[in-house]
Fold:
Amino acid sequence: MKTACIQMDISLCSKQENLERALSLAEEAVSKEAELLVFPEVFSTGFCYDCIEEAAETASGPTLEALCAFSKEHDCILAGSIVEKIERTERELISSEKQLPAQYNLGFCIESGKLAGIRRKVQLYGPEKEYFASGDSIAPIRLEKHGLTIGLIVCNELRYPEVARKLTLEGADLLVSAGEIPDFYIYPWRIMSLSRAIENQLPHIACNRVGKDRYSIYLGGSFIADGWGRILAEAGKEECVLIGKIDLEEAKGIRKTGSILEDRRPDLY
Structure:
């Protein structure tokens, strides 16, 4: 199965520009026969804190609508995250006692034109806590293509091995992470991303952004690794479409070597 990281620059708060850039790069990916395409975290806006409520949209909004149309046309799978608007009725239902932020960081997976599943980011970082509500569930997303089940991880969630492990225990066949990792954290991110693959014996498609905004510089370094932690494809610091081929049968074989999951001792942890 050919997969792709859409390692793109993101113009802060410029939704239409970012969407057009993302779709242009996605066209390149499918022209190279990629079936699964991964975008960086909040790829359509960046962390647009100055006007985040205006930038936010629902899962049925124009960004995911455009991605669904692309996915249908090319019969492919798309994953990433956007800034999701929380409807007032949902906010009131979640909490009547305290005022929650009006947005989620929404991880999504689209298959062949339909929204296959979502995962709202549960592990928020730094200023995110002021602008985003935290998700309350961790579950993989089941697809029809190749009978795949995807464990979607949104950026800072990689810091927490429990997130990837729970996705694995619930049936994930591969890990997909959408990141917006700044330069000062690129090396820990790489190590953690490889560790999540090795400790769960799963392939990992780790997608980061490039470029800069008022907050940070982003060095890319997206990669695709197998369940041994071997790098199958790796990007540099420039905007690009990174293509890597995952052998799904070999991936199953890797999971059958040893008994990592069976030998866990949760009674002691």
